[in-house]
């Protein structure tokens, strides 16, 4: 029979061994901690502190983010108030003119649909420019129907909500007193020197590429109403004919009402392709005057200038 005292250990001996083992582990841990350098201990403490303050940092980030959001909202409100105030000031500076400008849309049957579409765009431009003008005019659109109304319904359904404009299906002669009407046409022998605020000036709504030359002048004579042309020749010289698009006539009048000068209005609005050049009272351009002075110089004067 095997002897248990030789092959096994008693309970008392096992407890002593466990205590000895624990002491050894503790002693090893303490010695490991003691073996760290001062820099390593400092780094370890810093890491522990970093972990302990994790929630605090998260809370601080949240508070900073909320503070920035509140600041942005505050700035936006201030900017909005400033913009609103500026807009109100701008609106107060706008002084509507009593001049009436009428676009006569009674030529619908004389145009192809592509030309009607061009007229539609010109009318849109007139409306937009009048809305932001310093002295907006009383804008009338008469004889609206046919292809033009179709184009507006298809491409610009919002036109029914346009503001500060009078749109009529009737002819302008049924809307405005005859004595107040002045038809603007480049074929008229009369030259418009200044705007009369009691009058309604009619612009022919026609894009015809010169296929119906003089038709607006003939219409004015048939109806027995006054007519005139803009004073282009008195203030600018152009390298093309004096027939202008609807929106150009409209914008020139708006510019004249703002600047009080036909020459400034023409030079500001006329497109470059028209080659408009300002002229003096004697009808000569600045370049022509310089060329004339150069030709009249004596040889001695020419040498001195050189």
Automatic annotation (TrEMBL):
Keywords: Methyltransferase, S-adenosyl-L-methionine, Transferase. Its EC number is 2.1.1.221. GO terms for molecular function: tRNA (guanosine(9)-N1)-methyltransferase activity; tRNA binding. Residues 21-30 have a biased composition (Polar residues). CDD domains: Trm10euk_A (cd18101). Residues 1-84, 278-306 are annotated as: Disordered. Residues 57-72 have a biased composition (Basic residues). It catalyses: guanosine(9) in tRNA + S-adenosyl-L-methionine = N(1)-methylguanosine(9) in tRNA + S-adenosyl-L-homocysteine + H(+). It comes from the Eukaryota. InterPro entries: MT_TRM10-typ, MT_TRM10-typ_sf, TRM10/TRM10A, tRNA_m1G_MeTrfase_euk. GO terms for cellular component: cytosol; nucleoplasm. Residues 86-277 form the SAM-dependent MTase TRM10-type domain. GO terms for biological process: tRNA N1-guanine methylation. Residues 293-306 have a biased composition (Acidic residues). The active site is at residue 208. S-adenosyl-L-methionine-dependent guanine N(1)-methyltransferase that catalyzes the formation of N(1)-methylguanine at position 9 (m1G9) in tRNAs. Probably not able to catalyze formation of N(1)-methyladenine at position 9 (m1A9) in tRNAs. This is tRNA methyltransferase 10 homolog A.
